[in-house]
Each structure stands twice: as C-alpha cells, then as structure tokens.
Amino acid sequence: MRLLLMSDTHVPTRARSLPAPLLAAVDVADAVLHAGDWVDEATLDLLESRSRLLLGVHGNNDGPPLRRRLPEVARAELAGVRFAVVHETGTAKGREGRCAERFPDVDVLVFGHSHIPWDSTTVGLRLLNPGSPTDRRRQPYCTFMTLTVEDGTVHDVTLHRLPPRS
Q: Start and end of every Calcineurin-like phosphoesterase domain (predicted)?
C-alpha cells in the first residue's frame, strides 16, 4: 500500500495551489494522510476528490468550517500498521516520550505544525513529519513524504523535495 504524507499546505495564504508533483503523487497513492493547517476548504475538497482514501486532521490555522469537518486526531489501520495523525506534538525536546505516552496503541504517528521534516523512532513508535509542500520557512526545500506499508511493516520512507516555485 502506497501512502502520501503531507501537512501545512496553507492554501491560499502561503501558495495559490498545491504543487503539481504533489498532486501527481496523490493520484498514485492508495492513501493520503494530511496533518493539518489546510487553511481553506477547497484544498480539503480537492484532496477528497482525488484521493482513494484521505485521513486528515485540523490544525491551529484551520477555522470553524474545517474544524467541523476534520477531527483533532485521526486513526486508521492500513495494511496492518496502526497510524494516528495529529497536527501538533509540542517542542522537539522530549517529543518521542510525550508521543509514545499519548499514543501507546499506535505504530506510526504523522504530525505537522513545525514545517520541519522529522523521522524518528522510539520504543514501538515511529514519528513522521513530512514538512510543508508550500511553505518551507527556514528549511531549504518544501517537502512531502511517501512510504509503503505491507504486512504490518513500514518500508521505503522517502522525503521528497519540491522544486522552488517560480
């Protein structure tokens, strides 16, 4: 099963639209996980229409319409791997311990908020932040992640760098 992870799309405040390479990845993914800060409902509608399966949450920049449509935490078991998606996990210091304590029944936690890509593992929990495909902030590139899951195992976690917007 091919998964696409994204967060912090911030359309239309940080970009007019989602980048074409990201949308191409959506089209071939079996599931799309979005860790919040959509900003507008049109992006949610677009991803719902293009995704085979969309698992998303609201973020701190998402107003009442998105909060009505999206939970704070979303969970799904995909190909035998237990996922949770949340927007914010707090500061980097102590993140693994806090998240392992908050999500003891999860194999992979996808989160956003910082726009900083993250891939770490603590006892029984892998934490993944795909960065942002539209707002790199202090990072050298805008990014998203892909991975595959099969028979209860995560494989091929890849951070994709997007070309600069013209």
A: 1-151
Interior/surface letters 93-117, b for 16+ CB within 10 angstroms, e for the rest? eebbeebbeebeebbbbbbbbbbbb
155, 149 contact by CB (below 8 A): yes
Residue matched to tokens 């770490």: 120
Confidence of residue 166 (pLDDT cuts 50, 70, 90): low
How many Cβ atoms are within 10 Å of 54's Cβ, its own excluded? 19
| Long-range contact pairs involving 157-161 (C-beta distance under 8 Å, separation at least 24) | 157/119, 157/128, 159/117, 159/119, 159/130, 159/131, 160/21, 160/25
Helix, coil or strand: residue 105:
coil
Say if residue 12 is preceded by a cis peptide, omega within 30 of 0.
yes
Q: For 4-36, b where at least 16 C-beta lie within 10 A, e where not — what string?
A: bbbbbbbbeebbeebbeebeebbeebebbbbbb
Does the model's pTM come out above 0.85? yes
Q: What is the largest CA-CA distance in the chain?
A: 43
CATH 3.30.70.20 fits 2-162, yes or no: no
